[in-house]
């Protein structure tokens, strides 16, 4: 059974151009780690008036927590997060960065979904 996830975080205004530039060419190792963790259809949207980044993805595996831990253990992903975390501000009190005990991105509740005809 698949799961859809939506997360938000604040983008520091001074980092907007750099954030978009780095995401125009995401490192292949980072994408491979996501793929190994059964993550598909991943996108990040930017809403400048609130400096908001909105990420959505579909998880198609059977062990979400385990697969997310594998992503966090990936060395290339850890290096990526060292770059991107500095461009962001978490909404979660006590968050210190991606891959730590306290989540960096905030998961938001889905309140509506229309699948339409497949």
Helix content bin: 25-40%
Q: What is the strand content?
A: 25-35%
Largest sheet: 5 strands, antiparallel
Query: How many structural domains can be distinguished in the coordinates?
Result: 1
Total beta-strand segments: 5
| CATH fold call | Alpha-Beta Plaits
Do you know the CATH architecture?
A: 2-Layer Sandwich
Instruction: Give the number of helices.
Output: 4
What is the CATH domain class? Alpha Beta
Radius of gyration: 14 Å
Commentary on this structure:
The protein has 118 residues and is α+β, with helices and mostly antiparallel strands. Helices cover 31% and strands 25% of the residues. It contains 4 helices and 5 strands. Strands 1, 2, 3, 4 and 5 form a 5-stranded antiparallel beta sheet that branches. The longest helix is centred in the middle third of the chain and has 10 residues, at 64-73. The protein is globular. The two termini are 16 Å apart. The model has no long low-confidence stretch (mean pLDDT 96).
List the main descriptive attributes of the protein structure presented here.
single chain, alpha+beta, Alpha-Beta Plaits, globular, Dimeric_a/b-barrel, Rhamnose mutarotase, Rham/fucose_mutarotase
Write the topology of this structure:
Blueprint: E1 3-11, H1 16-23, H2 28-36, E2 39-47, E3 52-59, H3 64-73, H4 75-84, E4 88-89, E5 106-107
Antiparallel strand pairs: 1-3, 1-4, 1-5, 2-3
Brief characterization of the structure:
The chain has 118 residues and is α+β, with helices and mostly antiparallel strands. It has helices spanning 16-23, 28-36, 64-73, 75-84, and strands spanning 3-11, 39-47, 52-59, 88-89, 106-107.
């Amino acid at each position: 059974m698949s799961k859809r996830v939506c997360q938000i975080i604040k983008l520091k205004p001074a980092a907007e151009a750099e954030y978009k530039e780095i995401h125009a060419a995401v490192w292949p190792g980072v994408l491979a780690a996501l793929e190994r963790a059964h993550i598909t259809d991943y996108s990040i949207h930017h809403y400048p008036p609130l400096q908001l980044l909105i990420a959505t993805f579909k998880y198609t595996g059977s062990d979400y927590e385990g697969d997310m831990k594998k992503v966090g253990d990936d060395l290339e992903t850890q290096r990526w997060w060292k770059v991107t975390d500095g461009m962001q501000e978490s909404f979660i009190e006590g968050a210190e960065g991606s891959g730590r005990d306290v989540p960096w991105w905030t998961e938001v509740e889905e309140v509506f979904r229309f699948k339409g005809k497949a």
